[in-house]
Design a protein that fits this description.
Elements lengths: L3 H9 L6 H8 L4 H16 L2 E5 L1 E4 L28 H13 L4 E4 L9 H14 L4 E4 L2 H11 L3 H11 L1 E4 L9 H7 L6 H13 L3 E8 L5 H18 L2 E8 L16 H14 L5 E2 L3 H4 L1 H6 L7 E4 L6 H4 L10 H10 L3 E5 L5 E4 L1
Helix pairs in contact: 2-10, 2-11, 3-11, 4-5, 6-7, 6-9, 9-10
The chain binds ligand V47 and iron/sulfur cluster (SF4).
Length: 359
């Protein structure tokens, strides 16, 4: 029989926790005991270090053919508020980021019906020439699959061409909840969970590191969350290509999902991050994305197994279009202060988790 004591014994012995055990933790309200286990699992991997990076997000377009029900960022072409940045505007943002000390640009956008694959290739090439010091982390598995469809190239060919143009790694978006029944409700037009996993697998095989996200706090059950994490853990056993797991707390404003409860609770946020740390024993990093969580929960999460706070971001659209109340950017000093006040050691990292400097 599963009890907290048996789970605790597994974690103390460095043994893997089962899906049933993770589910048991989700159904428990002993947040502090779960947090303590997660903190132990994290301490073994990362000591007192908490990573952050200095980065800038750029969203080239919000025009998207998918129109997922949870997404308040996307627009149909021609609709009020629809935008597409010109190449020189994207380059200007990247150049400014490099001048301000960023080491990374994070680029994701909508699936635009009229832009050709070459536009994305040119974007990477142009950034690489304008700001050669920046690591380009760009395009979710959903975008990669779309590029393959609009270009007639295979996924492998798309990845190869983007890598040649300057792609350094991929973010973890588009995963949502990898369970099909949930996807049908929240993003029926989006690629299936199996396809998302397959594209990420091909990216790992092509030598790219990626992240993995989980959009939670909408119509999914806690069993769906565990199933999602189990699929990621299995793929990670095979490829080792995931860097960080990032639970994304659903922001409900302006979305088409009609829910009784608007948004996640602080308790659910902390529990989800902690269980992720305990369950995903083959992921080195659990990231609290402060944009969606708010700075205070992100700070508290550092005592619940989290060892990464993402970055300075600078201009966040996806969460803020959906009502996120956090600031749109953080200064490096602000992030350092937040980590220090939690009693941890701030470590600035590059995209591939090489330490740049600790504070
Ligand atoms: O895939 C969309 C999510 C993702 C909402 O890899 C929403 O380092 C909450 O993936 N409420 C894109 N979330 C953002 C993303 C990301 C962010 C930060 C770091 C990294 C990384 C990746 O945003 C989408 C979707 O899951 N999203 N709408 C919403 N209303
Ligand atoms: Fe498009 Fe991504 Fe928004 Fe879905 S989540 S509508 S794919 S931009």
């Amino acid at each position: 029989m599963t009890t907290f004591a048996t789970i605790s014994a597994h974690v103390h012995a460095g043994q893997r926790v089962t899906a049933d055990e993770a589910l048991f933790l989700f159904n428990s309200n002993d947040l502090l005991a779960i947090g303590e286990l997660a903190a132990l699992a994290n301490k073994r991997k990362n000591g007192a270090n908490v990573f952050f990076n200095v980065n800038r997000h750029i969203n080239p377009t919000n025009v998207c053919v998918n129109r997922c029900a949870f997404c308040a960022f996307s627009r149909t072409a021609g609709e009020d508020g629809a935008y597409t940045l010109a190449l020189d505007e994207i380059c200007r943002k990247a150049r400014e980021a490099a001048e301000e000390g960023a080491t990374e640009v994070h680029i994701v956008g909508g699936l635009h019906p009229d832009l050709a694959f070459e536009f994305y290739e040119e974007t990477l090439n142009a950034i690489r020439h304008t700001a050669p010091t920046l690591h380009i982390k760009a395009f979710t598995a959903v975008e990669i699959e779309y590029f393959s469809r609009i270009s007639g190239l295979t996924i492998e060919q798309v990845l190869e061409r983007l890598i040649r143009a300057g792609l350094g790694s991929m973010p973890g978006g588009g995963a949502e909840i990898l369970v099909e029944e949930v996807r049908q409700k929240i993003c029926p037009e989006k690629i299936s969970g199996a396809r998302w996993l397959e594209i990420i697998r091909l990216a790992h095989l092509a030598g790219l590191k990626t992240n993995a996200t989980m959009l939670y706090g909408h119509v999914e059950t806690v069993s769906d969350r565990v199933a999602h994490m189990e699929l990621l853990r299995t793929l990670q056993d095979e490829t080792g290509g995931f860097q960080a797991f990032i639970p994304l707390a659903f922001q409900a404003e302006n979305s088409d999902l009609k829910l009784d409860i608007k948004g996640t609770s602080g308790l659910d946020d902390l529990k989800t991050l902690a269980i992720a740390r305990i369950f995903l024993d083959n992921f080195d990093h659990i990231k609290a994305y402060w944009i969606m969580l708010g700075e205070k929960i992100a700070q508290v999460s550092l005592a619940f197994g989290v060892n990464d706070l993402d970055g300075t971001v600078v201009e966040e659209k996806i969460g803020h279009d959906a009502g996120a109340t956090s600031p749109q950017s953080q200064t490096k000093e602000g992030i350092i202060r937040l980590i220090r006040k939690a009693g941890k050691t701030p470590v600035e990292r590059d995209t591939l988790y090489h330490p740049i400097r600790s504070f």
